[in-house]
Automatic annotation (TrEMBL):
Bilayer topology term: Multi-pass membrane protein
Regions that span the bilayer: 20-39, 211-229, 262-288, 300-320, 326-353, 387-408
Chief localization: membrane
InterPro entries, per the entry: DUF3533, T7SS_ABC-Transporter
Protein family: Belongs to the ABC-2 integral membrane protein family.
Protein name stated in the entry: YhgE/Pip domain-containing protein
Organism, as annotated: Streptomyces coacervatus
Residue ranges annotated for the DUF3533 domain, each copy included: 25-391
Keyword set, alphabetical order: Cell membrane, Membrane, Transmembrane, Transmembrane helix
Family matches, as Pfam families: DUF3533
Gene3D superfamilies: abc type-2 transporter like domain
Amino acid sequence: MADASPQARAVTLLGRPKLWLMPTVLTGLLALLLALLYMGGIVNPQGALHHLPIALVNGDTGKPPAGQKQNAGTQIAAAITSDTSNDKAEWRTLSLAEAKDELDSGKVYGALVIPADFTASITALTTADATTRPTMTVLTNPGKGSLGSSLASKITTTAAQQASQTIGKQLTAAAGTQANSTTKLLLADPVNVVTQVGHPIGSHSGLGLSAFYYTLLLVLAGFMGGNVISNAVDTSLGYADTEIGPLHTRRPTVPISRTQTLLLNMVMTAGITVVSVSLIMLATITILGMDATHIPLLWIYSYCAALAVGLGVQAINAAFGGVGQLVSMFVFIVLGLPSSGATVPLQAVPGFYRFLSHFEPMRQLSDGVRAILYFEARGDAGLTRSWIMIAIGASLALLFGFAMTRYYDRKGHKRLTPQPA
């Protein structure tokens, strides 16, 4: 009997349940995990928000009003910091200079400032010719990302407005019936809340998101570059076929150990990453005009960051073989994005993602990029920790990769039997 036509053979194969089983299970599982992991990190930032660092500056130097032990600024600061019913903010009582330093180093997402003349301004409201409202200032920090800065601004503004209403009730009660309707209206909400940028960033910084997308480019460069190099080396050594449309080639298999193959992959990764990182900077800074300073430092950091990812990809591929690309995708991309803290503050994501952030590469790299781009490359803005984590990550990749390949070589686990072209 003649063989069935290719079309008929395909139809016959489609009727086999085993052909469908594994692709269906893996694809469905990946879709489920991706949906849960990505959306789980951003779907409810307000509900997950806990202990967002915000500075509280009480600069009020006025004397306490008659019959009170503390001036108005001290009373407001005490009321804000002692409120245990709301744990969304971690209020840090600082001087104005300390608050500005923490804004400049990205340690706080915003600040609430009570001025020196606050009590005097409130006392003046009780006079007959009062026209000027006392002011509290909300300082934002766009360098911490648009969402994080917005959350901090909302918290500080709400706290200032609640303080204004409390003061208003006290002043209205003290004024009694002697106050006219205009004065009563002024006393009901006496404090003017002003919002200002506490640590400005450039207009070409993506509203504080350029650091995240730049980090993503570095991770993708390391991830995709590592996989492309690994596949290209396998093809060149005859361990994989080359197919381009109808064209198919197979080179003679080169006898080489797994350890030597990994060494070749890693050396090539170190060389090619120079090109990819340089082109990323050319595209983002030179062509697109992204705001960036400390250019030499940024290039060195970008190279080391992308190289650490590339070495990690090579180590994982060497250890896990064909599924290595899938494993490295989860390590560097799937779990890294929602736990990076670059778009949604880590204080506003579920605890699982905060746990991942302690070691997931993207969080470590994004902190360093943010420090260089927005916070004058300060070590205490996250750059020092990022350098340490890059060194640890690269070292672990080298140790893990070569330990696994040497183990396979000693056990005689050859990749395949050498074949001619």
